[in-house]
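Inverse folding, one chain.
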């Protein structure tokens, strides 16, 4: 749980004293990545921060889209694949890829935070699930208040969370892709999900500045 960067950013949100609306945002938004790894029985193995590209996410800013893909590990070690990594191999870990933005310093504490977006298409098989989430953490990440929804059919989505009124808490919103790891050349049959990333102007954003930082967390 180590702070790796800190910056003031105009987060994609509108806010009042009681409510805030956050959006998706394109590749220039302050995205962070975190990966949790489980064995095939669902037992936790480890978790740490990952680079956003390593989560197999793909932004197309020209067309205002974000594509979420199954996670693929390039390491051929048998820890990841059976019998070992390569075309046609079987993944032997469950990957929980979290792509999110984060606001520190209490800007969203004690408010009703609403996360709005739109799924343009979904071809994921049953091997993977996608969730949109809002999370409200204590400063040491030991306590979590969360709201999430499973995304499946194309169309608009919206979820809201009443955050705890504590200026030390951390609020996150984003997407989680969970499922078996897949060798990179075998990804296509497992499908993907495409999310709209409207510009701030399209959302009518006022641009409330928040202190945004990358943190390590489970």
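Residues assigned per position:
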């Amino acid at each position: 749980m180590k702070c790796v960067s800190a910056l003031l950013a105009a987060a994609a949100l509108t806010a009042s004293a009681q409510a805030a609306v956050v959006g998706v945002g394109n590749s220039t938004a302050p995205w962070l990545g975190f990966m949790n790894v489980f064995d095939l029985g669902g037992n936790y193995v480890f978790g740490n921060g990952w680079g956003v590209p390593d989560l197999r996410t793909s932004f197309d800013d020209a067309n205002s889209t974000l594509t979420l893909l199954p996670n693929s590990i390039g390491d051929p070690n048998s820890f990841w694949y059976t019998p070992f990594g390569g075309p046609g191999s079987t993944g032997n870990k469950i990957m929980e890829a979290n792509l999110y933005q984060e606001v520190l310093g209490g800007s969203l504490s004690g408010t009703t935070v609403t996360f709005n977006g739109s799924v343009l298409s979904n071809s994921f098989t049953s091997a993977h699930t996608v969730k949109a989430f809002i999370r409200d953490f204590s400063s040491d990440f030991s306590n979590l208040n969360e709201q999430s929804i499973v995304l499946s059919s194309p169309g608009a989505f919206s979820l809201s969370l009443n955050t705890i009124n504590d200026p030390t808490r951390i609020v996150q919103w984003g997407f989680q892709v969970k499922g078996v790891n897949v060798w990179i050349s075998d990804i296509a049959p497992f499908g993907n999900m495409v999310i709209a990333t409207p510009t701030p102007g399209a959302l009518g954003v006022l641009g409330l500045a928040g202190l945004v930082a990358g943190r390590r967390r489970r």
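The longest strand covers residues 93-103. Helices lie at 200-203.
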